[in-house]
Specification:
The complex is a heterodimer of chains A (164) and B (294). Chain A contains five helices and eight strands; from the N terminus they run βββββααββααβα. Chain A is α+β, with helices and mostly antiparallel strands and 164 residues long. Chain B has 294 residues and is α/β, with parallel strands linked by helices. Chain B contains ten helices and eleven strands. The interface between A and B is large, with 55 and 54 residues.
Chain lengths: 164, 294
């Protein structure tokens, strides 16, 4: 899928992605010559179809996670099917802090505010550990020391994690 | 007013920045990297349901492991996963590492990955998180993606053989061959009935069309082995599986005799090759294992 600025005869570049949390997606594309912007709006079915392919409009911002598609799309997953965090010596997925699985150790950790932890509980348990690990990794990279509902919104939009 | 001409998609080379094609290629590359550490991918398929694919897959995996080989078993039957239980794994917690999800060790040390390990309860059907009303539109997309992840995101390690147990349906075999165009071996399981012969014939055509290099038939429930003396008698005469092999030129690699103990042992998560290694059925699986690795 490409967007062509007809006036400039140039392909528009991806500029921004927004996930309002209702299953829909807005992806903004911009012409680098005239700076005109258009937004592609997808309904929940279209959004799901794209994510079902295991790809992200706007490109990936975090590396592929093991079984990411399965974990983010299976509806009735067993709560303790995956041992995220524990294997790397971190706390359980729903604990106050968590160390990422696999990547080299980093200094410090990201705290999760009570509100953020409460909101994390709304994420299906089957995928909760993976989501927390990805968000924590993102927060590290952003220099964020405490994850709040607001930073969760930013993470979701920037990482393109619809429904998480 | 002159008609303006807008460039076509294929005339535009500039990427939008999404890199969708690159993302799809990366999925394929990850799968290829994982399979590179596996000496032989063995696909157990049929097209026909209820012919004993999973039973064959479980016993073949165990038979190969008993030969001292490193063996994995991927249950690609997402909606009716049974391979894990047949290999004695259920309810295990899966460790997630950077390089993948660690499979669970089952009977004879076989490394197992199955949707059965992921679902909330024994009677929980596989359902996808999706908007209401049109799941049929992308269910096959999700299922193919899930099978791809089972193969590529499971940390199988180095294996001599990875057994892939497919669900019924010629389309499932077709999808797998699109993911893995050159599997080492495809086994087409059939039973000695005309209906099975009719359906499995379609799979033979598909495998030939895909130019799979090594494939053979496995006739399940082919004859009956006497529990007392081991003598075999035919359940069906003439045996359609034998006729199918003769008519199609596809070799019949194994004839697995019917034996009530096979089902009982399998239900208990103990393949008959381990539970009764001297039985006729176990010997048939041992011979099949030898042919697969030849």
């Amino acid at each position: 899928m490409k967007f062509l600025c007809v006036d400039c005869d140039r392909v528009m570049d991806f500029a921004e992605r927004q996930l309002p949390g209702d299953g829909t997606m807005a992806a903004v594309f911009r012409c680098d010559r005239c700076e005109r912007e258009v937004a592609m709006l997808t309904n929940p079915m279209e959004t799901r179809l794209v994510s079902g392919l295991g790809v992200k409009v706007g490109g990936r911002t975090v590396p592929d996670q093991p079984m990411e598609l399965v974990r983010s799309t299976v509806a009735d997953g067993r709560e303790d099917a995956f041992a995220d965090g524990e294997a790397a010596g971190g706390e359980a997925a729903d604990g106050p802090t968590v160390a990422p699985v696999g990547p080299p150790p980093r200094p410090g950790s990201v705290a999760w505010s009570p509100q953020a932890r409460e909101r994390l509980q709304s994420v299906p348990s089957f995928v909760r550990g993976m989501v927390k690990r990805i968000y924590t990794e993102w927060a590290w990279e952003q220099g964020i020391v405490e994850m709040t509902p607001e930073t969760m919104d930013r993470a979701r939009a920037e990482l393109g994690m619809e429904g998480m | 007013m002159a008609e303006r001409r807008i460039r076509t998609y294929s005339e535009v080379n500039h990427d939008t920045g999404s890199g969708i094609l690159e993302q799809v290629e990366a999925q394929g590359a990850r799968l290829a990297r994982r399979l590179a550490a596996i000496d032989r991918l063995v696909v157990v398929a049929s097209g026909k349901g209820g012919v004993g694919k999973s039973l064959v897959a479980a016993n073949l995996a165990a038979a190969l492991a008993r030969r001292g080989l490193q063996v994995g078993a991927a249950d690609a039957d997402l909606n009716g996963p049974s391979l894990g239980r047949m290999l004695g794994v259920a309810g295990a917690k899966l460790e997630v590492r950077e390089d993948g999800v660690v499979p669970v060790r089952g009977a004879e040390g076989v490394r197992v990955m199955s949707m059965d390990l992921l679902l909330a309860s024994d009677d929980a059907p596989l359902r996808w998180r999706e908007p209401e009303g049109a799941g049929f539109a992308w269910q096959s997309v999700l299922e193919t993606g899930a099978v791809r992840e089972f193969l590529s995101d499971t940390d199988w390690g180095e294996l001599d053989a990875l057994i892939v147990d497919l669900p019924p349906g010629t389309d499932k075999l077709q999808r797998l061959l699109q993911l893995v165009p050159d599997p080492g071996v495809v086994l087409l399981v059939t039973t000695p009935t005309e209906v099975a012969r009719f359906v499995v014939g379609k799979s033979i055509a598909l495998v030939r069309e895909a130019r799979v290099r090594r494939f053979g038939l496995v006739a399940n429930m082919a004859g009956h082995a006497c529990e007392h003396c081991g003598a075999q008698t035919s359940l069906f005469d003439p045996e359609p599986a034998v006729r199918m092999a003769e008519e199609t030129g596809v070799p019949l690699w194994a004839r697995i005799p019917f034996h009530p103990a096979i089902g009982a042992h399998t239900d208990a998560g103990r393949p008959i090759v381990a539970a009764e290694p001297d039985s006729e059925a176990a010997r048939a699986f041992e011979e099949l294992a030898a042919k697969v690795m030849a």
